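For reproducibility, we list the full input for the NDP complex.
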Amino acid sequence: MENFDFTNIQNIIYMLSAMLFITGIKMLGKESTAQKGNFISATGMLLAVSATAINIVNPLIAIVAILLGGIIGAVISVKVKMTSIPEMVALFNGFGGLATFLIAWSQMNNLVNDIAILQFVLVVITIYIGGVTFSGSLVAFGKLSGRINVNKGDVLANIFVSLFYLSLIAVPVTLIALSIYIETYQLIFYTFLAIVILGGIGFVLPIGGGDMPVVISLLNSFSGIAAAFAGLLLVNNVLIVAGSLVGASGLILTIIMAKAMNRTVGNILFVGYASSNSSSSKDEGEVKPINAEDAYLILENSSSVLIVPGYGMAVAQAQHVVRELGELLEENGAEVKYGIHPVAGRMPGHMNVLLAEANVSYDLLVEPDDVNPTMEVFDVAIVIGANDVVNPSATEEPGSPIYGMPIIEVHKAKTVFVLKRSMSSGFAGVQNPLFFKENTRMLFGDAKDSISNLVSEFKEL
Ligand code: NDP
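The corresponding predicted structure, in tokenized form, follows.
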């Protein structure tokens, strides 16, 4: 028993974990099975971590680390507000990148004593992807939480962008330099570490406008790819499988999001600034405010209504009253649809999650391509805290930072109600000509209050 080899048992547990990950991910594809899928994947992760802990010389360290990580994760997930989940996801991606960055760094000293070319290549690549993911994700966190704003022409930002380009050639240069000067590797290696971290900042800093969703999915994919490389480095099967799953699914999501923005990934990453602070100074005319009573009179006579939710619905937590309004409209004889833009809110699928939480039937959800051709038949489009995703500048103003992004063309409906608190712009920082259109009425106020007022009007019937 003393010489018992745990490796086989460990590999069987790893295989089981991988099966649980794959089953869990598959179940996440459907709203009805998503919760179970999440639990199954988490069980797979607990198994994988526990099996890995067997190898650790002092099991107490492993148990404390698992408990600490588990408690911190549980507290964060209970405390975090729905509207802050995108920032949390950005941080999670970043910590994934940091973990792989540190793993690869820790392997460097072993390698110097026992030179193996493949291992060197793996260390340098893992450090690069992990490091860029780490610092890039911190910048993404800053941008999503409104702490970081970058303008075209910022000197400091341009320096960071140059460092990103420098970091792209740093990988082959470092490999060559290390192979020549391995005895005095420290200077080259630490310079490489610094360039990678600063390059990651320059990677995300210039990205703005409506392009952030694509970058966040890409960083998510990078964190998986870095983990897969770390798995190769440590010869750890479950890390390779889990990393590849995250890497591949993140990449698929990146391509889907880029398509939704009508851009290519390369175009988003390398075609300069889409300033997040730009706004049109053009005089757009006057807005026409409306109150809940008058809005109700129009809605009561409508036979088809399109509801378009956006980030503001998440902020107001208005999804439940929105569902109630939808049901009242249907009871009143109207056909109701929900127009869902793929980048509405602050994370992929944000609106789907909120509406599912409020028990809105998935059959009522329509995508821009499906609803735009028939927009003229809707009597009313109710825009609830959405802004960029219904901004006609994207189709009408070639100079706009969001030009080319597909939108839900609510301005073509017979009447548009826009529910928001002020005239301020959305995430892309762009003025919205929709607010000034002849057929638009602004229902100012918190989205939940405004919808509740409409619901009360219907109930007073
Ligand atoms: P926007 O960010 O364009 O606009 C949201 C609007 O909601 C604001 O104009 C705000 O106006 C309003 N609002 C905020 N709070 C409330 C409230 N309590 N009640 C009523 N209105 C409120 O949101 P969209 O969903 O239209 O577009 C998403 C944007 O975010 C896109 O640019 C997208 O690219 C970007 N993004 C998306 C990600 C994703 O994965 N989905 C990730 C990162 C960025 P006011 O303050 O006047 O109330």
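The chain has two domains: 80-270, 292-459. Residues 80-270 form one domain. Both points were considered when choosing residues for closer inspection.
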